[in-house]
Design goal:
Layout: E1 8-14, H1 25-36, E2 40-45, H2 52-69, E3 77-83, H3 104-117, H4 122-134, H5 139-153, E4 168-169, H6 179-182, H7 185-205, E5 222-223, H8 228-234, E6 237-238, H9 258-264, H10 267-306, E7 312-318, H11 320-333, E8 344-348, E9 368-369, E10 382-386, H12 391-401, H13 413-417, H14 420-423, E11 434-435, E12 450-453, H15 474-485
Parallel strand pairs: 1-3, 2-3, 2-7, 7-8, 8-10, 10-12, 11-12
Antiparallel strand pairs: 4-9, 5-6
Helix pairs in contact: 1-10, 2-15, 3-4, 4-5, 7-9, 7-10, 7-12, 10-11, 10-12
Organism: Streptomyces tabacisoli
Protein name: Serine-threonine protein kinase
């Protein structure tokens, strides 16, 4: 008699930029699920789909992580990948992918990836990459660079992807244009160059450390910025952020020594900052796309996967993929009929606002998170891992997420524009966070969500994205296993 597979590979759902699936895709997966006998199906969404080779390598890393967690229950679980037109720059330490040395080859590969995934923008992309390669010392080079970035990112108001730039709704003045595209380009290059230098200095001094120890106790120097409710729910933040740039009140344009810095900045450092600015503009474009495909593509497709079977759906999103997975909740609800309930949702280092689930925005007189109240569509656990040592989400994301017209000069950039994957779900009543490995002590059937502090295993080294992708740890695998082992949903 043949032995059951230890862990089932159910292939992939492939969405195009218009959120469309190939015909019969859902029927094919549903049949495969039924034939396999899988009881728990993990639907995994990440952002590293540069090409088939890179996507397959990262998919494989997640599959191995889950297979190890399920090795004691052969045949019970499987994984379905979600492929969508997304990419990561080739220097981002992607799991399962051989690290390319920086240089002309990596630049060519990245340009090919960008042209493939951002169709219609070859002219702007070619010019941007040429400017980054040449590193001209002419002032007009930065003006040209900024112009090309704005052309790259702009979309007409009637474009269906346009409304998906923000993680908030209901504001008096909706905000959808990132400050980094409209502030002086040289100033933004200085800002990102300084942030990268802050990363190097944090590594040299050893000052980067979690704000919560493994046993759950507060660290000796923690910040309690925020309302009392937020402090209880989100827990302590690091007293010394990874960069003081995000501890400032207001925006980059709010004043300070930036003008003088821009005049005296080292040219090589400026172009390093320009490269990071370029990456963050691309990620802004991909965040828009992730929300669009999540709500209009994946969300409506999920009910069909479970039709005529007892399979339980466990949605897992990492980084950009976490935004796609989160917005899939909106697609579940907008289907008209009674929405299917997810058995669990896990957001690993989510690249979206930490107020995405909030019923009100602490710094606004109106508005709420784009996913407000949608945690009710998750029958079982909603896990959100966060790390105070994820440099991308702790520093680069809030700098890039700021919107023009922001006037909240009394709150820090990190608090208003912070990410789920840096300090967890905020603005929602719920339990205090727990450390990774301690979730078994909680009654997950009764909790609306749980913030899980993964700072002890997810941490940046000397490269800004090394920590963001560093989720392939057995402890993360066990967290995903635990999401399926909870017998019922929240009461």
């Amino acid at each position: 008699m043949p032995q059951p597979a230890a862990f089932h590979d159910l292939g992939a759902l492939r969405f195009d930029g218009g959120a469309a699936l190939a015909p019969d895709s859902v029927d094919r997966v549903r049949a495969a699920v039924r034939d396999s006998g899988v009881r728990d199906l993990y639907i995994v969404v990440h952002g590293a789909h540069n090409d088939e080779e890179v996507g397959a390598a990262v998919d494989g890393a997640y599959r191995r992580l889950l297979a190890e967690a399920w090795q004691d229950a052969p045949g019970r679980a499987g994984m379905l990948s979600v492929h969508w037109p997304s990419l990561c720059f080739r220097d981002e330490d992607l799991p399962g992918v051989e690290q390319r040395p920086d240089g002309a080859e990596a630049d060519r590969e990245t340009l090919d990836d960008l042209v493939r995934h951002l169709p219609g923008h070859e002219e702007e992309l070619t010019r941007i990459v040429a400017l980054l390669r040449d590193r001209s010392d002419h002032e007009t080079a930065f003006d040209d660079f900024g112009t090309q970035l704005r052309r790259l990112a702009e979309v007409p108001l009637q474009d269906p992807v346009a409304p998906f730039a923000s993680d908030a709704e209901g504001e008096i003045i909706p905000q959808s244009d990132p400050l980094m595209l409209f502030e002086d380009t040289r100033t933004m290059c200085v800002e990102f160059a300084g942030a990268l230098d802050d990363l190097r200095r944090a590594g040299d001094t050893g000052s980067a450390r979690p704000a919560r120890h493994e046993d759950g106790r507060k660290g000796p120097d923690v910040s309690e910025e925020g309302t009392l409710a937020e402090i209880r729910v989100a827990g302590p933040r690091p007293a010394r952020p990874l960069s003081e740039r995000v501890a400032r009140a207001g925006t980059v344009a709010s004043g300070g020594p930036l003008g003088e810095q821009a005049r005296t900045a080292d040219q090589a450092a400026l172009w390093d900052g320009a490269h990071e600015l370029f990456r963050q503009v691309v990620r802004h474009m991909l965040r828009r796309r992730a929300g669009f495909i999540g709500e209009l593509g994946l969300g409506p497709a999920l009910p069909g996967l479970a039709e005529d079977s007892e399979v339980r759906l466990h949605l897992v999103g990492h980084g950009l993929g976490a935004r796609l997975a989160g917005f899939a909740l909106r697609g579940l609800e907008s289907g008209g009929a009674e929405p299917v309930m997810l058995s669990s949702l896990t957001l690993l280092q989510g690249e979206m606002s930490h107020f995405a689930f909030a019923d009100s925005l602490p710094q606004q007189v109106s508005g709420h998170g784009a996913l407000w109240s949608l945690q009710r569509l998750v029958q079982g656990p909603l896990f959100c891992t966060f790390s105070h040592l994820d440099f991308h989400l702790g520093v680069l994301y809030p700098l890039s997420a700021q919107m023009i017209g922001d006037s909240a000069d009394l709150t820090s950039i990190a608090r208003k524009w912070g990410a789920l994957g840096f300090d967890g779900v905020q603005g929602v009543e719920g339990p205090a966070p727990v450390c990774l490995g301690e979730t078994g002590k909680e009654d997950l059937r009764r909790l609306p969500y749980l913030n899980v502090d993964a700072s002890e295993v997810v941490h940046t080294t000397d490269r800004p994205f090394s920590g963001h992708h560093d989720v392939m740890h057995p402890e993360i695998g066990q967290l995903l296993r635990q999401a399926a082992d909870v017998p019922g949903g929240a009461d």
